[in-house]
Design a protein that fits this description.
The complex is a heterodimer of chains A (451) and B (395). Chain A has 451 residues and is α+β, with helices and mostly antiparallel strands. Chain A is 23% helix and 30% strand. Chain A has 13 helices and 23 strands. Chain A has a 10-stranded mixed beta sheet with strand order 5-4-6-7-1-8-14-13-11-12, sandwiched between helices. By secondary structure, chain B is α/β, with parallel strands linked by helices. The chains are: A alpha+beta (451), B alpha/beta (395). Chains A and B meet through β17, β19, β20 and β21 of A and α4, α5 and β5 of B.
């Protein structure tokens, strides 16, 4: 047994409606990562507010950006968690989000760890022209699993294996079984196995994360569930799409937000994880409300540009090869990533860059200062000659709330409209994003968005 | 210690500025140098020390990385030759180094050459690409040179009520002057509407608010004032020369004290040069100014920093045609960087050549009548380095 003590979600600023992908499609929307977002930036956005006293990290994704490198360790570094904690990746199927929760629960229950950060993030773009065939969506979610009582109690996690996966990749080939065979030999058999050990009377409600909800509906009804009252439908999928490994965890978060009481989540993908959860404390946040404020992508062409499948060019640049240095990033990560500045001990002026003497009073003693991620615009410009998928590149000079000044690019500014347009005096927030659009190396730094 | 310089310029040379596809780096060095040597009435072997100003050798074929790139095209060996690099103030700094060597009696005849060959690459492949690809991966990433000055423009518009028309007015004025200069790169008149309607580079600065990418070279032959032969030379005297680095390449964008309303480097350089030259009322005592209008906003800011007007009053000078040829203190009658173009290492030397012509009375159609005192100004980096030189036609 363990508790989910806190959580945070991260969605891109942009969503696309099915009707933009095809004029005859409906109004459902999916979240779409911007040009400078990936699973790491989304995972960071979700986890950065939860990073205290963590002794283990589990990172779940089906869309890894690294091979031969732990995403969990990289994220720990970005979060300024000291080296040496346990940090592991889980992947392969979309069930890996609840795999991570299951493992975290066991670790905490056994006393091996006190506070486990479970992070799931996925950014999967389907093949061009086939966007409507898979309900993709991009998101990250982070949960702290702990022994301390919190928002929800996690108990009785079981995992049921199955040999059949409806669709999988083998050496980069996408393999799909016959649909009827997959339903019967895979899903149906697996759910039957699960329902044998479930008692409809002891659970307030039930939630299925996976395909075949119509089929599951009938099977659960037969097993004694009152589906009108007890079945929690997957209404997130029409708003954010199927966000892969994050989706089951997002549905747990939504159940906490909706104060669902006790419920069982069946997370089906090439077998099932069944998690019994009891919400112990309600929460006022709402994923549904959060997604309502996102920006709709207007054209399919814009969507292609966001995923950099359109021609990436700006004034003659087809490919960028920006200077990047692993040595520099490791040496200066306290400053670049963790935003540690320097405060003059004499006049308290705060600097982002180090110098031997204070520029204001010439004193020579400084102490480290944690810089804030919010500030006010001092000046700005829109650069039309800097290569960008969506020019211009807005450059923003920001006076931070803690003191200190930073100059960064604006992001999420695909459309230069009232929602994104900035002026002197506006409040902005800093977000960690990729600096190199050609994805040649991981290269994360701060950009700003309007708040 | 801030003493009067007592240095005389006895020879001047300048090439045409422009897209000089038919001329190499070496060709430009030879043309400007030989002009100046001939103008001084000396032979090359009389030169005892030389300084080469280049800012961006890596943009061309790595020509200009050391003094030997001046020696080689001139066959000028067995003397000290030093390359000077200080961004857009490189040319002025070459002059400063030559003057210092003369004052120190390290040599008796010194040469300062500024040269830059930027157009062996396409304009997008030169300075812009360098800013995009080679600079720090995070600091200022997203800026081109125009953007680093556009943030000044937006702040000054916010603080002092400067308008886009005021900024564009600088471009209209300087392009108007440039028509009179055979050596200018962009010889064309333009209206406010054309400047403001040209493609945006970094809001609010347009293409016509920005100097072009240019090839060119200029050269000075200098001696101590006491060594001037008045029968032979038409000397112009350096009365003041100040250079100051007052912030860093990245610092302005990360320093909460930086107000983006003025260039402290210019103020410091001007204070040093004016003090040496005994100038206390710049507007009354200076007859013409060649200043660093790499982007038109810089000219407005520099009016204030050079003391040609009070804080927040620069817009009144441009609105009142005070700095136009025929006005009270003409500024950039050569056409400035906006019209002449900006071969970075050459610009500071080219400006001194221009002022020398006016002080000699040989500036032709654009002559500032009766000019006795002229000032040149350069600013380099994002307003970090500045130089100011005060020149007079009398010792």
């Amino acid at each position: 047994m363990s508790y989910i003590t806190s959580y945070n979600t991260a969605f891109p600023q942009f969503i696309i409606a099915d009707k933009v992908l095809h004029p005859k499609a409906g109004e459902n929307t999916r979240t779409v990562a911007y040009t400078d977002e990936d699973i790491m930036t989304l995972a960071y956005a979700a986890a950065c507010k939860l990073s205290s006293n963590i002794d283990a990290i589990l990172f779940a994704t089906t869309t890894p950006i690294f091979k031969e490198r732990y995403h969990a360790s990289y994220l720990a570094d970005l979060l300024n968690i000291p080296e040496g904690i346990t940090a592991l990746d889980l992947g392969t199927t979309t069930r890996c989000g609840t795999d991570a929760l299951m493992l975290a629960n066991h670790w905490v229950d056994s006393g091996a760890y006190n506070n486990v950060l479970v992070v799931a993030a996925d950014v999967e773009f389907p093949a061009i022209g086939k966007e409507l065939l898979t309900s993709f969506g991009h998101a990250a979610v982070a949960l702290i699993v702990s022994k301390e009582k919190g928002l929800a109690e996690v108990s009785d996690i079981s995992s049921y294996s199955a040999a059949i996966a409806e669709e999988f990749q083998y050496k980069k080939n996408i393999i799909q079984y016959d649909a009827r065979f997959a339903r019967t030999a895979g899903f149906k058999d697996n759910i039957k196995l699960i329902l044998k050990s479930m008692n409809a009377d002891s659970i307030d409600s039930i939630m299925l994360n996976g395909n075949y909800s119509k089929l599951a509906h009938g099977m659960m009804k037969k097993a004694g569930f009152d589906m009108e009252k007890q079945f929690i439908s997957n209404d997130l999928i029409t708003r954010i799409g199927n966000t892969g490994s994050t989706h089951a965890l997002l549905r747990i978060v939504q159940a906490i937000q909706d104060d669902r009481g006790s419920f069982a989540l069946i997370d089906y993908a090439n077998g099932s994880n069944v998690i019994n959860i009891c919400v112990t404390k309600s929460d006022t946040k709402s994923i549904v409300e959060e997604v309502q404020h996102k920006t709709l992508i207007n054209h399919y062409q814009d969507f292609l540009a966001v995923r950099k499948r359109g021609k990436f060019e700006s004034l003659g640049y087809e490919k960028l090869d920006l200077f990047s240095s692993e040595m520099m990033q490791e040496r200066e990560k306290n400053q670049f990533i963790h935003l540690k500045g320097f405060e003059c001990e004499s006049c308290n002026t705060v600097y982002f860059l180090k110098a031997a003497r204070c520029n204001k009073c010439k004193a020579t003693s400084f102490k480290e200062k944690q810089l804030s991620r919010r500030g006010t615009i001092y000046s700005l410009t829109a650069e039309f000659y800097f290569p960008n998928t969506f020019p211009p590149t807005n450059m923003i000079i920001i006076d931070l709330e803690t003191g200190g000044r930073l100059t960064v690019q604006q992001t999420d500014d695909m459309y230069q409209n009232e929602k994104s347009k900035l002026k002197i005096g506006d409040k902005v927030g800093l977000v960690l994003r990729k600096m190199m659009e050609n994805d040649a190396k991981p290269n994360y730094f701060w950009k700003c968005v309007k708040v | 210690m801030n003493k009067k310089r007592d240095i005389a310029i006895i020879g001047i040379g300048v090439t045409k500025f422009g897209e000089l596809f038919e001329q190499s780096f070496d060709d430009l060095v030879r043309e400007a140098s030989i002009q100046a040597i001939d103008d001084a009435g000396i032979v090359m072997d009389e030169i005892q020390g030389a300084w080469l100003s280049t800012a961006f050798p890596e943009i061309g074929v790595f020509k200009g990385r050391s003094g030997m790139d001046l020696s080689e095209p001139l066959n000028l060996y067995d003397i000290p030759v030093t390359r000077v690099s200080n961004f857009c103030a490189s040319g002025a700094d070459a002059i400063r180094n030559a003057a210092n060597a003369l004052n120190a009696h390290e040599c008796d005849v010194a040469m300062a050459v500024g040269v830059e060959k930027l157009r062996d690459r396409s304009s997008q492949d030169s300075i812009v690409k360098m800013m995009v690809e080679l600079t720090h991966p995070f600091y200022q990433k997203g800026f081109t040179a125009a953007g680093t000055f556009a943030v000044y423009a937006n702040r000054i518009m916010h603080e002092y009520g400067v308008t886009k028309e005021d900024i564009a007015g600088v471009s209209v004025k300087n392009h108007g002057h440039g028509i009179l200069n055979d050596n200018a790169h962009r010889r064309m008149s333009c209206s406010l509407e054309q400047v403001m309607g040209s493609p945006m580079v970094a809001d609010p600065l347009t293409v016509m608010d920005s100097c072009p990418t240019t090839d060119g070279a200029a050269c000075l032959i200098m001696v101590r004032a006491e060594d001037v032969d008045k029968q032979k030379h038409k000397p112009i005297y350096i009365h003041g020369l100040g250079l100051s680095i007052s912030t860093g390449w990245d610092l302005p964008f990360f320093d909460p004290e930086h107000d983006f309303l003025s260039f402290k480097a210019t103020q410091n350089a001007a204070r040093i040069a004016y003090e040496q030259a005994g100038i206390t009322k710049p507007m009354d005592e200076i007859d013409l100014v060649e200043l660093h209008d790499c982007f038109s906003i810089v000219e407005l800011l520099t009016y204030e920093d050079l003391g040609l007007c009070g804080v927040g009053e620069a817009k009144d000078l441009i609105r009142g045609d005070v700095t136009k040829l025929g006005g009270e203190t003409p500024v950039n009658v050569s056409g400035g960087l906006l019209s002449c173009g900006h071969p970075v290492g050459a610009t500071g030397v080219r400006m001194v050549v221009e002022v020398c012509h006016h002080l000699r009375g040989t500036a032709g159609e654009r002559q500032v009548e009766g000019a006795k005192t002229g000032v040149t100004h350069n600013i380099g980096g994002p307003g970090a380095i500045a130089s100011v030189i005060v020149l007079k036609n009398e010792q």
